[in-house]
Design brief:
Layout lengths: L4 E6 L2 E6 L6 H9 L9 H20 L5 H15 L18 H18 L12 H5 L5 H37 L4 E6 L2 E7 H26 L1 E2 L14 H15 L4 E2 L3 H6 L2 H27 L10 E2 L17 H25 L9 H25 L5 E2 L1 H8 L2 H12 L1 H14 L3 H7 L5 H7 L2 H5 L6
Parallel strand pairs: 5-6
Antiparallel strand pairs: 1-2, 3-4, 7-8
Helix pairs in contact: 1-4, 2-3, 2-4, 2-6, 2-8, 3-4, 4-6, 6-7, 6-12, 7-10, 10-11, 10-12, 11-12, 14-15
Length: about 475
């Protein structure tokens, strides 16, 4: 049986699409033209586009340019887009030319066709609801899409902040658990001074705290939108009443603290806010990579390496070496961090290549920004729940490593002086005896005094050892 078709027309000619499809001619041409990324536009961007269309329709009705009957149908259709009901129907490749025109028109067509259904008509009946005249009313791709990217990015960074908080809390719990475990601190990969394992986790926690604060500030960079600016920020074709109402409606719909850009031309032409956010999240990526590499090193061996931490065993580590368990979670998180560093450079380059009054490369910005934020959030949650929550400690190995000559010598140098302790360290290296035994034999310290100077409290006391 032959599927019923309808014929739609555009500037280039006509295309047949399934009669009952909510997708239209622009979606059909985009499907034929764009298959570079092999993955769809991020669904949160499409849902945010639904919010933009709903706000525009309400603002147009307020301005007297959209009737109540069409508004009711468009509202319902746009709400369905916002809820994700039509995610599959909105599928389009993430990388398209046209500064996001494909994203805009695919959404316009779907909402128009769905509104036609809600009004008792058939998809494609532009006399009922037109993708251009009614759904895209008083808009351009150049203000609708950047606004939607910002909405989706705010939602993404909020979820990312929650994930960072979860990871920070995990580190704080280990900070408490390991507060009394003295271990060896290292600089330049060499034995250095004593510290506690708890304070090591505390340092990671503080770094994540800064990340949390920085991420919260991303919203300030993203909340200023250019909706109402239409093609290049001059508000061409948009009534003044609409321009001042659209962002108010969008703020009410999304619950986000959105504000209209004071200079809509700037807001349309320049994408530096996305580059700034990418840099802010680059700091988180750096911390995740550093922390994960430290975890790998501290758990290395376990017999032939540091072996101080015992990471949760997640899977067999080798197809040939029996008994080998790899630090797979930190390794995957390192890759997530490095992936963001690459995304960051792509975003910066795409933002830099804006041309005159718009940026043609916003699809690439949206793709790397939104999917990259998701990856960072999943990385934080994975590191917390699949690694740090279940970390154990090898107290025996920590104590053995903490007996390193340099570390113990440094711990008592404040009491005995640098030169005298340097001689003890030299003797320890030459004889294989411990600094502790040599100091006691020389009558420089009692055993109790030495143990106090190398205790957790002394190790972490400001000016400890003096």
């Amino acid at each position: 049986m032959t599927e019923a078709m309808r014929v739609e027309h555009d500037l280039l000619g006509e295309v047949a699409v399934p009669a009952d499809s909510l997708r239209g001619i622009h979606a059909a041409r985009a499907a034929a033209n764009f298959d570079l990324a092999g993955r769809p536009v991020h669904p949160e961007l499409m849902r945010a586009m639904g919010a933009v269309k709903l706000a525009a329709a309400r603002a147009a009705h307020h301005a007297g340019t959209l009737d109540a009957v069409r508004l009711a149908a468009i509202e319902q259709a746009a709400l369905e887009v916002m809820e994700g009901r039509w995610d599959a129907a909105l599928h389009t490749d993430a990388l398209q030319g046209g500064a996001g025109t494909t994203v805009n028109m695919v959404v316009n067509e779907l909402i128009a066709n769905r509104a036609c259904q809600l009004m008792g008509g058939q998809p494609g009946d532009r006399s009922l609801v037109s993708p251009h005249d009614h759904i895209n009313i008083h808009q351009s791709t150049n203000d609708a899409v950047p606004t939607a990217i910002r909405i989706a990015a705010i939602r993404g960074t909020r979820a990312l902040e929650d994930a960072v908080v979860r990871l920070q809390e995990s580190c704080q719990a280990r900070e408490r658990d390991f507060a009394g475990v003295v271990c060896l601190g290292r600089t330049e990969m060499m034995d250095a001074v004593l510290l506690t394992m708890g304070r090591r986790f505390g340092a990671w926690s503080d770094a994540l705290g800064r990340d949390r604060w920085r991420i919260s500030k991303c919203e300030e960079r993203l909340r200023v939108v250019n909706l109402g600016g239409t093609a290049i920020g001059t508000a061409l074709g948009a009534p003044r009443q609409y321009v001042f109402k659209a962002t108010d409606e969008l703020r009410a719909i999304t619950g986000l603290p959105l504000a209209r850009a004071e200079n809509l031309i700037d807001g349309t032409a320049n994408a530096d806010a996305f580059a700034e956010v990418a840099g802010i999240l680059g700091a988180l990526a750096a911390n995740l990579v550093k922390m994960s590499d430290d975890l790998r090193l501290l758990a290395s061996g376990p017999q032939g390496g540091f072996g101080e931490l015992i990471l949760p065993a997640r899977q067999e580590g080798s197809s040939i070496m029996p008994g080998k368990i790899n630090p797979v979670i930190p390794e995957s998180v390192v890759q997530a961090g490095l992936s963001w560093m690459g995304d960051q450079q792509v975003i910066v380059q795409a933002c830099a290549r804006g041309c005159l009054e718009i940026n043609p490369y916003l699809p690439l910005v949206a793709d790397r920004l939104l999917y990259g934020i998701d990856t960072l959030a999943r990385a934080c949650l994975a590191l917390a729940t699949k690694c740090i929550d279940g970390i154990a400690i090898d107290a025996t190995r920590c104590a053995a490593n903490a007996s390193a000559i340099t570390a113990q010598a440094t711990a008592i140098a404040g009491r005995l002086g640098h030169h005298r302790v340097s001689e003890l360290a030299r003797q320890a290296l030459a004889t294989g005896r411990t600094v502790r035994d040599l100091a006691i034999d020389a009558g420089l310290l009692t055993g109790a005094e030495f143990d106090e100077l190398t205790s957790p409290a002394a190790v972490m006391r400001l000016g400890g050892g003096s």
